User: Fold this.
Amino acid sequence: MTNMLKEHVNLIVCPDCKGHLEKIEIEKKIFGFYCKGCQIIFPLKDDTPIILARDARNFDLEYSLVKNIERKFSNNSFGELQKSIKRTLDLLLTKKDVLTWEWEDEEFWTKKYAKENISEVKEKEKWRYNDRIWQREPLVKELIGRLSLKDKTILSIGCGEGQNFRFLLSNYCDEKSLYIATDISFEALALNRSRNTHKNSLYILCAADYEFPFLNNAVDVLCYFGILHHTKNKSDNIQKDKRLVRKNGYIIIAEAIERPTLPFWITKYRSESSAHEERIRKKNLLKRLGKDKGTEVVFAREQRTPFFTGMITLFRRAMLCNRKLFRLVSYLDIITMTLGQMFPFLGGCEILLLARVHSVNPKT
Assistant:
C-alpha cells in the first residue's frame, strides 16, 4: 500500500454502514480492508482500494482478489476474518453474470481509457486542443476567487483520467492539498495516476450512485465534471454526497442538461457515446442545490448552444489552434443564449455551477 493511502486511510469508511475499516495486513503488506460491522471484505488492486457498496459489487473485478486474500490467510487463526472472507465471496457469487447500470457504462469507458493508455497523446498538446477544459476555466476561476485550494481537500467524482484536476485545479494547489480521485473504471484511475504529478493524491474505485466511503465533512471541494448525467440517480446524488463537504466548502458542477430535441441535421453530428448519456434536468439540479437545502448557488452559466456546436464542428482545427477565436465564439455563444428564451432548442446544452455549502453534517 502506498504511503499516501496509509497516511489518509482514516478518511475511508464502509460505504454501507459508515463504520471504521480495519486493514488486512501480513508482514506490513496491505491486501485490503474489512468492516467488522458488516463482516465484508474490500480488496486492494495495485494499491487502489476497491470500496463498493453492497449493491454495486462486481464479481469479475473482485472475486479473484478476495480469493487471493483467502489463500494468504488460509493458515491464519483470525476466525473473524475468515468469516468475513466467506461472506464476501458468497456475496460476489450472487453478482456473477450481473451487469448493473454503472457497470454497463464502465465497460465503454474502460475500453476508451485502455486505448488512450497506449496512445502517444502528449499532455501539453491535449491541453492546447481541449475545448471542454477551456470552457470550464471560468468556473474554476470563480472558485479560486472565493476559496484558496492550498492545504484543502478536493474530491473528484468520476474523475476519469484526471485532466480536469491536472489542467484546471492543480496549479492552485500546494503540497498539502489532497486530491482524492474516484471512478468506477480501474483503467481510468490507473491512467490518472500515471499522468498526475501531484504527489498528495489518493485513488479509490467506487460507484457514484451509492454512498461514498468517506467521512462526513471530509472535503473542501466536491467536483462533478460531466459525471452526473452518466449516473442513474442524476442530480439526486447531490443530496447524499453533500454530507462530505465541510461548512463553507464548495460544490463545483459542469454538466450536460436537457433541452428540446434539435433538428435532425444537427443531431446527426453527435459523436460516439457510452451506455448512459442521458442529460439531466436543470430545474431538478438547481432544486438539489437550493439554499433551503443547506447550499447556495453563487455562480451559474449555461453554454454550448447549437451555434457553438456548429462552429466547433465546422471549424474545430481553427478554433482549437487560436484561443482568441475560441473565446470570440464562446462570447457569441453567450449572446446566442438569449435566443433560447424564445426558441428553447437553441439554448445551451451544458451548465456550469458553483454552490457554497452552509450547513455542517454530523460526524460519521
